Amino acid sequence: MICWKNCCNHLGCLALVATVLLAGCESSTQTDPVVARVDDATLTATALADQIPGTDVTAQERRVYIDKWLQQELLYQEALDQDYGDKASVRRLIDQATRDLVVAAYLDETFEDTPIEVTAEDIEQQYHLYPERYQRKETEVHAQHILVGSQRDANSLRQALRRGESFEEKARDLSLDPETHTEGGDLGFFTASQYPELWEACANLSSGQISRPVSSERGYHIVRLLERKEPGTVKELVDVEQQIRVELIRERHLQRLDALITRLKDDHSWQIDETLLE
After folding, report:
1. What pLDDT does residue 30 have?
2. CA-angle at 161, arms to 157 and 165, nearest 5°
3. pTM score, whole prediction
4. Residue 130, Cβ neighbours under 10 Å: how many?
5. Residue percentage of the chain with pLDDT more than 90
6. How confident is the model at residue 10 (pLDDT cuts 50, 70, 90)?
7. In this structure, are residues 95 and 87 in contact, taking their beta carbons and an 8 Å threshold?
8. Is-contact 179 147, C-beta < 8 A?
9. Which of 39, 158, 245, 247 is the least crowded, having the fewest Cβ atoms under 10 Å away?
10. 32-54 average pLDDT score
11. Beta-carbon neighbour count of residue 29 at 10 Å?
């Protein structure tokens, strides 16, 4: 289920400040020691525990939260001293934030028991219905690579590959890249912005050819080009599956939100003065 609080990203800072300040407003008791204080505002041990989720919280994580609370409380107190709490613009922001958070909580609870399900069949149908949505906007290449530590190792590796030794086996045995060596060095499809050095190495290669050693900040690479896809070609389903899933969830959320708004319009008296929009 999509959390409607995520639709209120612009409220993130306000929510954080509100959380910290609410903690600061709690008065301490003899059984609830004060962890931090700014003038009369206190952060108690109970408030601290309530605001930090989870049970395996380290001392460092608690210290980070306390430091944030202290910074926010100092800023808050200074802002109050300068009457920012009474400014009309600030009050409008607070009022709007309150409305948005209340609506977000209502929507979360309203849709809590009806999560949106997206099946593999739904994704495949969307993929075939709207292929233009999943076209490449720039050239992509599909390549493998083997990462080694020195140019000498790279030269030796290239000679072995040119003698016909298996690229996949060499990648599994020798590559220093922990993310690809178990997959035979397969990088999948990528663009120039993702792996600039490896992209450049593929520029003059034909499918199946291997590059000369390519240096990067990680070491030296031997690259083999598998395939090149030009702009306008449709990406493979496996590469856009998550994108389609998110699209379908968003669309279905909007559909049921529209249905809810329609029902609420029937339940309430409302009007829009169109003459004021001209």
Report:
1. 57
2. 115
3. 0.62
4. 11
5. 77
6. very low
7. no
8. no
9. 39
10. 88
11. 10
Radius of gyration in angstroms for the set of CA atoms belonging to the chain, rounded to a whole number:
29
Residue 54 gets the label, from left (phi > 0), alpha (psi -120 to 50) or beta, of left
Cα four-point dihedral sign 194, 200, 201, 207: positive
Nearest to 211 by CA among 170, 258, 161: 161
Contact 234, 134 (CB under 8 A): yes
Each residue of 145-157: pLDDT tens digit? Answer: 999 999 999 999 9
What is the β-pairing status of strands 34-38 and 214-216? Answer: unpaired
Q: Is the pLDDT of residue 15 over 50?
A: no
Residue 134 has pLDDT above 80, yes or no: yes
- 154 Cβ contact partners less than 8 Å away, ≥ 6 residues apart: 148, 213, 220, 221, 222
Q: Model confidence over 85-121: pLDDT tens digits?
A: 999 999 999 999 999 999 999 999 999 999 999 999 9
DSSP per position, 28-66: PBTTB-EEEEETTEEEEHHHHHHHS-SS---HHHHHHHH
* Phi, psi torsion values for 234, nearest 5 degrees: -85, 135
What count of other Cβ atoms lies within 10 Å of the Cβ of residue 107? 19
3-state secondary structure 157-217: HHHHHHCCCCHHHHHHHHCCCCCCHHHCCEEEEECCCCCHHHHHHHCCCCCCCECCCEEEC
In contact, 169 and 252? CB cutoff 8 Å: no
| Tokens representing residue 105 in the block | 């909580």
CA 20 – CA 35 distance, rounded (Å): 13
